[in-house]
Amino acid sequence: MLQTTEYIQLKRVIMIRAFIGVELENDIKEHIYELQQRLRRYAAKGRWERIGNYHLTLKFLDEINVSQQKQIDEVLRRICAEQSPFRLEAAEPGIFNGRDSIRVLWLGLGGNLRPLRSFAGKIDSCLSQIGFTPENRRFAPHITIGRDIVFECPFEQIRESIGPVKYGPIDVAKATLFKSEQIQGKRVYSKVSEYAFRQ
Question: How far is Cα 173 from Cα 133, in angstroms, rounded to an integer?
Answer without folding.
Answer: 26
